[in-house]
Design brief:
It is built from 14 helices and 33 strands. It has 549 residues and is an alpha+beta fold. The strands form 8 sheets. Strands 11-10-16-7-8-15-12-13 form an 8-stranded antiparallel β-sheet, with no helix packed on it. Strands 2-3-1-4-5-6 form a 6-stranded mixed β-sheet, with helices on both faces. A 6-stranded antiparallel barrel has the order 17-20-19-18-21-22. Strand 23 and strand 24 form a beta hairpin. The protein is globular. The termini are far apart.
Length: 549
Amino acid sequence: MPLTVGTAGHIDHGKTWLVRALTGKDTDRLPEEHARGISIDLGYAPLDLPDGRRLSLVDVPGHEHFVRTMVAGATGIDLFLLVIDAGEGARPQTHEHLAILRLLGVERGVIAVTKADAVEPDALELALDEARELVPGAGVVAVSAKTGLGLDALRAALARAAVAGERAEAPTRLYVDRVFSLRGIGTVATGTLWSGTIAPGDMLRAEPGARAMRVRSVQVHDREVGVAEAGQRVAVALPGVERKDLGRGDALVQQDAYEVSYRLDVEVEELAPIPSRVLVHHGTATMLARVVRVDRFAQLRLEAPVVAARGDRVVLRAGTTVGGGLVIDAAPPRHADPARFEGSARGEVLIDAPIVGADGAWSYSEEWLDELRRDYERRLDGADPLDPGVPAPTQAWSAAIVPRLGLERRGAKLYRPGAAGALGEREREAAELEARLGLEPAKIEDAGLARFLEQQGRLVRVGDGYAVSPAAYERARAVLFKEMGASGRIKLARFRDLLGVSRKTAQLLLERFDADGVTRRQGDERVLRRSAPRRSLRRTGDPVAPDRE
């Protein structure tokens, strides 16, 4: 089973130097990191163990100003590599990082006492004893990234700690921690795969926002794979997605498998008094929340939506780490009654959530309905102007409850009455895009904008992230029908020559004709479908004037 190890420890205790000595890779990639001599962002490297296994390693910053980044890197890891300077011993961030690991449920790991070559033997023994007391049961190894002392012993200790536990079966869920663009590939998102698998061709949904995305390719540590498994560091190429459309904190999930919620019920573990407002760290996301506390339970009322599941863990901070919690309900109704928290912890249905009676009717409280309505209003406020709807609820009660929300259901989404997509300030951008369109497909980075313009009959999408003008599409159709009328079939090379375009352009157009139900492929030829519409498609799916040949 794939496993991920994360570093932890105080600034300047040698985490990144140790990672470089173990893996041969410098995880400080930013110019600012090299200029300042400290880690600022997360770094990643493969770590090969003596028994042939390969771990994914996440290197986190140690400065107190970057604890948010540390938590983002630590979520989803299976074991820790705690780094302590032999000359300094445990320092404030050593203790805070260790507390965060415990709150996240990361119990297995190894302590590396670094810079062992720079202290006297007696001082080294004291540092090793302190490390053993700090985390009883963890392996402790003296190392030096400078001389190589103890590196083999550290790899062996990590191999002993890297015992695969039971990983619950669950739908695909990856929390994004980095997004970038590569020439010829497009937008790439990386993260630790919490559950499920990801393979080329998979359709995932980016949440919050319910944006559908298709995976073009998958890499694990710069190597393309046919399928990535839970526990691995994964990079996915997402064609037709703009870099600005994704960011740290977003989740790539199996479609319709997880709810998006503004509330979490948690069982609290307290390190210090927890105030009424805290920063909540979950996955790679951070958001403010109001805490409604009842004994050992709390409801976190979040200012931004989150994708979570029962059994997840959160970290709570207010200047420093004050506690954490185990998620017992990832999409609870609003409540503040101790009995409700206790019932939620036992997995019981709460009384103000909809309950179906013996007569088949749904019962619920007006308070719950009002809160649900407010939730959807908040989500609609943040919807994409091009498609101002949000996913409709899929629970069994949705058919009975949705009509009470005052919203319109169109397919799988909810809209405000009469709401329609609009370009608004993006009209100029759309006009500039249209000006680039012709018969040769133009690259379109914004998939949402392309969909909107196609619905308006202003472009025709072909392939992944490309488009042609409607006039060019109609011209190609006319050429296709004329040749089909003469010979009954057409080959790619013949179509290319008739249009005077490249092979790639001809291929993209023929594939679009296949998708539109105009043609079907027989070997290396295309023939017309019997039901093929011999009418123009200026707006996708809407037949208008007949072709003029």
